[in-house]
């Protein structure tokens, strides 16, 4: 019964995430202020999928059962309303208190999430017990190593959420850009690496190079902290950008090896492949910032390549694997439609990058419209499948 409750609420987190994804793309096309787009993208879209799948995957990866199965029921309204409050706060005619209320609700939801996972994993905090069966005994070394970084993920979530709260509480804050790096790269990115090295080898029935795993996870754990600390500050900025680039490029290479070694070809796997390619482009732009100065025209492209590309397309791919569109009976519920959503987002990101590099506003807008269309198709497939279930 408890597993069913967690699974049901995990789907609701993913559904909320899909709605936030569409809202983010609408905001991007409309040209809303950057803070609105960051809240919809990071707090709304990315982290709600992280929360939902963490509730269902992390305890099992630590050979445990979620200590409070109904915790997601309390958590989801808090962070969903909190993300809405954070997104509305920068708009004119919205009371100033909206941002503070949103940050408080968001932080309360994070407290629930971290407390429940910490209590669940209290007697296995480093993940030495992996729940890995004898059929996958050869994977235990990587599984243990990946598990050890999950507490770091929770640490980034706490610090990033605290930074979000202090930004609206009129106390010293580290700034929106630094908080976004802590939450997107530190929480979501590192969890992608840690869970990805357990999940994708099983999906693809292949093994990643251990040398890459040994490089990616430490770099992905240290990089966001150094990057947030040294953002726009010379040598520290370069060190953080280099660490984060090492992690992303290493993960992209590891996934490419898995994809090449696998005989399986499913739409979700192509989405993740597109995501890691976008991530490589995103960190290359970041390295350009660190060594040549920040180019204002490329800031949005950098953000979207990493959050909509690396994180977003990977979320899309994993979602299609967990909840295949083909189980739906409604019109358009097919792998072809799913692949179209991936192509629309991927092509849109490339067009946005090209538009930013060439200073071509029409091309940039066309890219955002394409990404919006892909997001709508993705959300329609996911919500349709959930509605039928």
Explain what the structure shows.
The protein is an all-alpha fold and 389 residues long. It folds into 3 domains: 1-125; 144-262, no CATH class; 265-389, no CATH class. It is built from 13 helices and no strands. It has helices spanning 2-30, 34-61, 71-88, 97-120, 140-147, 150-168, 176-204, 210-230, 234-261, 267-292, 296-322, 335-358, 361-388. The longest helix has 29 residues, at 2-30. The relative contact order is 0.09.
Topology:
Elements (H helix, E strand, L loop, with lengths): L1 H29 L3 H28 L9 H18 L8 H24 L19 H8 L2 H19 L7 H29 L5 H21 L3 H28 L5 H26 L3 H27 L12 H24 L2 H28 L1
Residue fraction in strands: under 5%
Query: In whole angstroms, how far apart are the ends?
Result: 17 Å
**What characterizes the major β-sheet?**
none
Structural class: mainly alpha
* Low-pLDDT windows of residues: none
Multimerization status: single chain
Helix share, percent? over 70%
As for the number of domains, it is: 3
What is the averaged pLDDT score? 92
The best one-word shape is globular
Cα-atom radius of gyration:
19 Å
- The SSE string, one letter per element, is HHHHHHHHHHHHH
Number of helices: 13
Main attributes?
single chain; 389 residues; mainly alpha; 3 domains; 13 helices; 79% helix; globular
TL;DR?
The protein is an all-alpha fold and 389 residues long. It contains 13 helices and no strands.
């Amino acid at each position: 019964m408890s597993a069913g409750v967690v699974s049901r609420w995990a789907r609701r987190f993913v559904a909320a995430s899909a709605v936030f994804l569409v809202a983010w793309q609408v905001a991007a096309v409309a040209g809303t202020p950057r803070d609105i787009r960051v809240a919809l993208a990071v707090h709304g879209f990315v982290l709600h999928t992280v929360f939902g799948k963490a509730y269902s995957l992390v305890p099992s990866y630590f050979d445990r059962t979620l200590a409070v199965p109904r915790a997601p029921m309390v958590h989801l309204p808090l962070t969903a309303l909190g993300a809405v409050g954070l997104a509305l706060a920068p708009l004119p005619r919205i009371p100033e208190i909206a941002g503070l209320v949103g940050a408080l609700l968001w932080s309360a939801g994070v407290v629930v999430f971290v407390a429940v996972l910490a209590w669940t994993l209290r007697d296995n905090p480093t993940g030495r017990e992996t729940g890995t069966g004898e059929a996958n005994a050869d994977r235990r070394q990587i599984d243990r190593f990946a598990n050890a970084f999950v507490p770091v993920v929770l640490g980034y979530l706490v610090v990033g959420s605290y930074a979000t709260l202090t930004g609206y509480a009129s106390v010293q804050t580290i700034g929106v850009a630094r908080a976004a790096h802590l939450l997107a790269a530190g929480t979501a990115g590192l969890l992608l690496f840690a869970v990805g090295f357990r999940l994708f080898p099983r999906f693809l029935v292949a093994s990643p190079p251990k040398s890459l795993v040994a490089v990616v996870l430490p770099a992905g754990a240290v990089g966001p902290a150094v990057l947030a600390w040294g953002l726009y500050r010379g040598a520290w900025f370069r060190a953080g950008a280099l660490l984060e680039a090492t992690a992303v490029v290493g993960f992209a290479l590891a996934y490419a090896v898995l994809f090449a070694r696998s005989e399986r070809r499913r739409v979700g796997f192509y989405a993740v492949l597109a995501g890691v390619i976008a991530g490589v482009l995103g960190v290359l732009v970041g390295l350009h910032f660190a060594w040549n100065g920040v180019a204002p025209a490329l800031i949005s492209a950098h953000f979207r390549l990493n959050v909509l590309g690396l994180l977003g397309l990977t979320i899309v791919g994993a979602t299609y694997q967990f909840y295949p569109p083909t189980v739906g009976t409604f019109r358009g519920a097919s792998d072809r439609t799913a692949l179209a959503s991936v192509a629309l987002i991927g092509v849109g990101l490339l067009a946005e990058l090209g538009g930013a590099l060439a200073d071509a506003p029409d091309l940039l807008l066309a890219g955002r419209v394409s990404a919006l269309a892909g997001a709508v198709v993705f959300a329609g497939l996911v919500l349709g499948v959930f509605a039928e279930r």
